[in-house]
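Entry 14. Structure prediction run on the chain below.
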Amino acid sequence: MRTLFRVTLGLLAAAISIAACATSRAGYETAPYKVIRTDGAFEIRDYPELKIATTARDKDNSSFMRLFRYIDGGNVAQEKIAMTTPVFMVEGKMAFVVPEKHKAATPAPASAEVMVDTLKARRVAVYRYSGSPSQDAEAQALAKLKAWLEQNKLTESAAAFNAYYDPPWTPAAMRRNEVLVPVTTKQ
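Output returned:
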């Protein structure tokens, strides 16, 4: 009887975790893109110009909290801005994508540590993987993507960057992470 109870409790906990993860990512607006080509965990995508809020990337959680304060009303308009996915790590900065609703009139940050900027439209090669974000995981993912680029005769046009789609409470095996490399060759 105890074993049955433990198994049932474990299954219930797993079901709740899966439901929470599925609804947490699905509940957010995602940066738009058009898939040009898919090859397993690899894709070629076209992204339009994206308006982003950025801050310097720190090793602790302060980068995220600065951006969170900005979208939680810490802006000149004191307006709440919806969270979006993914969180980009690009050029030494953490970036939140500004939702479509605020793209034309993005509130100015109240903090000098947060900037509103634009990511130019670009074609990127992408490798999707799961797990907890780490330098090792990012390096392994980038190595796989670069090998795929070479196999497919694609040329890098700018530095790689990373995208993370899930909140920290999402189990590592269920997280969606990506490494992206801007490319020049049309596919």
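The two ends are 59 Å apart (CA to CA).
Filed with the rest of this week's runs.
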